[in-house]
Amino acid sequence: MTTNCTHLDQIQEVQPSAAGCEDCLRTGGRWVHLRMCLACGHVGCCDSSEHKHATGHFHATGHAVVRSAEPGEDWRWCYIDKTLV
Hints:
The chain is of the alpha+beta class. The chain has one domain (8-84): Herpes Virus-1. It is 18% helix and 19% strand. It is built from two helices and five strands, in the order αββαβββ. It has helices spanning 22-27, 53-61, and strands at 34-37, 43-45, 65-68, 76-78, 83-84. Strands 2-1-3-4-5 form a five-stranded antiparallel beta sheet. A hairpin with a 4-residue loop joins strand 4 and strand 5 (83-84).
């Protein structure tokens, strides 16, 4: 993994906000893959999903680092530095 991220200080010990995309569950939408915000635990859908709620959460909050919420995946991504962390 790359360590060129300057936002690692945002990472907290969090719990997932929902068992699926929090926003899609509320509106009846569908998702492809899930991402969890490591600053607050918000679970949102990926950019391959119609509504891109994970990226929308980043733009609304500035919470830069997410991790995959998919079983068997353990990667993290920084939206600002555009790098794996």
